[in-house]
């Protein structure tokens, strides 16, 4: 059974940092693209960051949403077999539920012929339950 579990959310003051973790089961953890999406109160869901699979054919492809560029960093760790989202310089508008999501092989521009949007939800097929991030003083 494919399962995704996020952790690391919490309450942080503006300017602070958090690191979200994504653990998967039911498939090889780095065989597929992984993305982080978020949905804030009263806002539409948006893509935060994605990283392509580690098949080594053309190197990692990494994308960030405009609102988080320069502040957030996506990564994967071969030792822990997890993906991470390091979030720095957090702002109140970053408050949201953050979801770790498994992509199809086309997601995050992983294969040619896919969507021009690396965060096209049609190319993501398994969602975690989400972890709450609240940025407030």
What features would you describe in this structure?
There is one protein chain. The chain has 137 residues and is an all-beta fold. It is 0% helix and 44% strand. It contains no helices and eleven strands. It has strands at residues 3-7, 10-12, 18-25, 34-39, 46-51, 62-64, 72-77, 82-87, 96-103, 124-127, 131-135. The strands form two sheets. Strands 2, 4, 5, 6, 9, 10 and 11 form a seven-stranded mixed sheet that branches. The termini are far apart. 36% of the residues are buried. The model has no long low-confidence stretch (mean pLDDT 94).
Give a short account of the largest sheet.
Answer: 7 strands, mixed
Q: What's the alpha carbon Rg, rounded to whole Å?
A: 14 Å
Oligomer: single chain
- Tell me roughly what share of residues is in helical segments: under 10%
Please write the string of helix (H) and strand (E) elements: EEEEEEEEEEE
Mean model confidence by pLDDT:
94
Number of helices: 0
End-to-end span in angstroms? 40 Å
How many distinct beta strands?
Answer: 11
What would the principal axes of the Cα set say about the shape? globular
Category by helix and strand content: mainly beta
Low-confidence stretches: none
Portion in strands: 35-45%
């Amino acid at each position: 059974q494919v399962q995704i579990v996020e952790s690391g959310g919490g309450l942080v003051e503006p300017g602070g940092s958090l690191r979200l973790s994504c653990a998967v089961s039911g498939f090889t953890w780095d065989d597929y693209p992984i993305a982080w999406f978020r949905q804030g109160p009263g806002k539409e869901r948006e893509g935060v960051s994605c990283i392509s699979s580690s098949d080594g054919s053309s190197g990692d492809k990494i994308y960030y949403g405009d609102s988080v560029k320069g502040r957030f960093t996506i990564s994967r760790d071969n030792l822990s077999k997890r993906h991470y989202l390091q979030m720095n310089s957090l702002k109140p508008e970053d408050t949201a539920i953050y979801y770790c999501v498994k992509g199809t092989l086309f997601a995050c521009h992983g294969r040619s012929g896919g969507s021009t949007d690396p965060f096209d939800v049609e190319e993501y097929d398994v969602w975690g339950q989400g972890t709450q991030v609240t940025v407030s003083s």
